[in-house]
Write a structure and sequence with these properties.
By secondary structure, the protein is mainly α. The chain has 17 helices and three strands. Among the domains are: 42-124, Potassium Channel Kv1.1, Chain A (2-Layer Sandwich); 217-293, Serine Threonine Protein Phosphatase 5, Tetratricopeptide repeat. 19% of the residues are buried.
């Protein structure tokens, strides 16, 4: 006959429970937060929303550009553009009406702008680059503007460097402006030969002519540049001739006949006594009697 006293009281029975420490460990494990992530979800979601736009589903506002309608979603426009956010948030007529009319943008550009807002990408080329840039700035779509600025850097060449410089000046893009200005200085003879330099405004031309590293074979080209630039629009530009004339480094002109003939006999020089006096002082300082009479 077995003795009950010999049974172990500490042995777990069939229906034993976990210890307190084990229970705490399980509870702690359940309390740990695990992050799950679907990297494709945002792009998939916006792809669906864009399909809604293209199919005119759940749209609540229509943008009209030159009479062409574009059905959109206020929420998406407001999230992408402070311009639209302000329009839909304050006491503008568009905040309560379902129609918005936008000027100074072509339908072609508006289509690309909306494509970027809904998808993050769009097509751009040199022909529509400046129009796209102006539209992105007007609508305050910073991400698109930044991408277009990067694209502008890649597009700088002889035929558009002046236009890009003017755009950079207009929008205070100082780094882009310095880059294009340096390009103009470094390739000035190409601009001169193709007569493209006449597109420069007076301020930029003065900056270019004042650069010691200007790409010209001889100083005579500075004078020729000034005369041709003024004569391109004499009614508007003649007022700057005397100021521009000061940028000619006369001491760098080795051909005295050029000064005596081409420069002195130029009608613009003859018209302004300050320019003639500058030439006379130059000859006097260099002991050349031709213009001292």
């Amino acid at each position: 006959m077995s003795n009950p006293k010999n049974k172990s009281l500490s042995s777990p029975g069939k229906h034993s429970h976990p210890s307190i420490s084990t229970t705490n460990q399980i509870e702690q494990h359940h309390q740990i937060r695990h992050s799950i992530n679907c990297s494709d979800y945002p792009s998939s979601l916006f792809s669906t929303i864009n399909q809604f736009r293209l199919s005119d589903l759940f749209t609540d506002v229509t943008i009209y550009v030159d009479g062409v309608p574009f059905a959109c979603h206020r929420l998406i426009l407001a999230a992408a553009s402070p311009y639209f956010r302000a329009m839909f948030s304050y006491n503008f007529r568009e905040s309560t009406e379902g129609n918005v009319r936008i000027q100074d943008i072509t339908p072609w550009t508006m289509k690309r702008i909306l494509e970027f807002i809904y998808t993050g990408h769009t097509d751009v080329n040199y022909e529509n680059l400046f129009e796209m840039f102006n539209a992105s700035v007007m609508l305050s779509i910073k991400e698109l503007t930044d991408l277009l600025i990067k694209f502008l850097y890649l597009q700088i060449d002889i035929y558009n460097c002046i236009q890009i410089e003017q755009l950079a000046t207009l929008y205070s893009l100082e780094t882009l402006r310095r880059t294009t200005l340096q390009y103009i200085v470094d390739h000035f003879m190409c601009l001169y030969e193709k007569k493209l330099f006449v597109q420069l405004n007076e301020h930029t031309l003065m900056e270019v002519l004042s650069d010691d590293n200007l790409d010209i074979p001889k100083e005579e080209y500075v004078f020729l540049t000034i005369v041709q630039w003024v004569n391109y629009h004499p009614a508007e530009r003649e007022q700057y001739f005397q100021s521009l004339f000061k940028f000619i480094r006369l001491n760098s002109i080795s051909d005295s006949d050029f000064v005596t003939n081409s420069m002195r006999n130029e009608k613009l020089v003859q018209k302004y006594t300050t320019c003639l006096r500058t030439l006379k002082d130059f000859y006097s300082n260099n002991f050349i009697p031709d213009l001292l009479g």
